[in-house]
Amino acid sequence: MLSHLLPATIVVAAIGATLGVADPGAAIGTSPELGSNETAETTAVADVLAVRAKFLHLGDGKVVEDGVLVVTDGVVTGAGKIDVPNGARVVEHAGHVSPGLVAARSYGYQPWQETNEDARAFVPEFRVAYGFDPEFPRLEDALAAGVTTVVLAPDERQVVGGRSAVVKTYGGRVLTPNAHLCISMNGQAANTQRFPTSYAGIVSSLDELFTSPKGVYAEAVSGNLGLYVRVGPRHEIDRALRFGKSHGVTGTLVGAQLAGQLADRIEAGRFSVVLPETGMAPNELEQESMKELADANVPFAFELRDANSFRASAAVARRCGASEAEALGSITSTAADIARVGTSVGRLARGFDGDFVLWSGDPLDLTSRVEAVYVNGKLAHGGDQ
Hints:
There is one protein chain. By secondary structure, the protein is an alpha/beta fold. It is built from 11 helices and 19 strands. The strands form 3 sheets. Strands 1, 2, 3, 4, 5, 17, 18 and 19 form an 8-stranded mixed sheet that branches. Strands 7-16-15-14-13-12-9 form a 7-stranded mixed sheet. A 4-stranded mixed sheet has the order 6-8-10-11. The longest helix has 14 residues, at 234-247. The radius of gyration is 23 Å and the shape is globular.
């Protein structure tokens, strides 16, 4: 329930009263009763939802006080200092509204057996979207934390693990089944039971695949398919950056906890970074890394492992020196850009999906609570359901 929201919870505007008609059904195109030989064309009526909020975070760094968000048939048609359309259903919210949160990489939000192929090190044809289970229980946990979009990716123990997918946590929608080609240049991809067994073998194999590339490798080089590169320590980040420069490719470094130590090179190579969840008390090196990434204007986002602590990573980034726009962007707009769905989610702007969260306070304040979550304009969690 939203009974503690002020000044009201969800207020549904009376369409008949708004339009000045005695029969509300007439206002929405309801036909009179027809005889057996009569026909009539039914007029589709738009479903218009308006949210009046004390603070509206648009996802581009702008915050509108006393703003209005309008969603029509699941798509944002207005956001900012605008009027409520006549006949709209209205939600009055005395707190903050943000875009639905976006996880640029997730772990444990799909059946494990659908994420990997143990027998082979190179499975470019593997598509994790085929194993997407919309009823997977942990997706509901993510939704309850305000996360509406996640990247599902193959396991990182293959040198070439296949293709990631971007999905909604509610409604079973796959935004794209081919977001990134996922490769690993970390120690886990080296396996004593099969080739390659070393870092040198990983690099040699990838050099061969990306020299005169074909198929998905050509798509990654051209930029038609994103490239996720799983790395860990500094030497793995260095190796990935040298590989990218050698083949003229760019992409996203995933799991690079101390990527800030090489922030200038990452920025020069036009890479972005998906950082591990920080926890509430990151060590000094992790804090410095986040500040260095922000200072170098390297786009960064965060992995989703525990939905209850996902937002904390952005709050920590803010505390470590990232701007408010950079911190919130790391779990909304920037994360959506990295996930290659930045034209449809992660922002409250015309033409974007109507995914948004009602918060009791500022979304970067960890004392704030999720009051309700909407996906494509539909109440998906919380509220008066």
